[in-house]
Write a structure and sequence with these properties.
The structure holds two protein chains of two kinds.
Chain A: E1 4-7, E2 10-14, E3 19-25, E4 31-37, E5 43-48, E6 52-56, E7 59-64, E8 69-74, E9 83-91, E10 94-97, E11 101-106
Parallel strand pairs in A: 2-11
Antiparallel strand pairs in A: 1-3, 3-8, 4-5, 4-9, 6-7, 7-8, 9-10, 9-11
Chain B: E1 5-7, E2 10-13, E3 19-24, E4 31-38, E5 42-50, E6 53-56, E7 65-71, E8 74-79, E9 88-95, E10 104-106, E11 110-114
Parallel strand pairs in B: 2-11
Antiparallel strand pairs in B: 1-3, 3-8, 4-5, 4-9, 5-6, 7-8, 9-10, 9-11
Chain lengths: 107, 115
Amino acid sequence: GIQVEQSPPDLILQEGANSTLRCNFSDSVNNLQWFHQNPWGQLINLFYIPSGTKQNGRLSATTVATERYSLLYISSSQTTDSGVYFCAVKDFNKFYFGSGTKLNVKP
Amino acid sequence: DAGVIQSPRHEVTEMGQEVTLRCKPISGHNSLFWYRQTMMRGLELLIYFNNNVPIDDSGMPEDRFSAKMPNASFSTLKIQPSEPRDSAVYFCASSGGGNSNTEAFFGQGTRLTVV
């Protein structure tokens, strides 16, 4: 199956700081999603972004499919951004998840 | 749409008992996935269905686990007999099926504790 690597594994930010999370994948994919798992365990869809750039408020994402990576940008971080961020790629019918980036935003 | 609905949200059971987890996918979605999340192994795909047919169950850990999808709006994951190592959060997700490039959406999960 496709290997998905996320970095960094852990990240501590002061509220208001910016950050970039990275997702590398080992093969061509036709679907890539970013999720946020909040402290209550819910997996929230952030972006569906097989290629290109999208923005949603303070968050934006870019996927360069030809180079097999995606980036998630968080600007002006807030304590509610804390949790784990997962990248998932789809190959045919199967979604493969990275191990996540655990983000802790301190007030 | 209410999203993917899972029940129960929490389940505590004794070792050896049968456990049934339930999932209602988003209407119109024809792919359904069951995942298990643990600290040690992260998110693991157990099985997925396309048009109610199991396509790949290679992630099902052993014969104690079984999954069914009798119709497009309902799926179950059964563990019989349950063991303490089955304790985890089980997620159901649905998406447009086949090779269509559509988003997957997750339910809120069932936190299973086997004592």
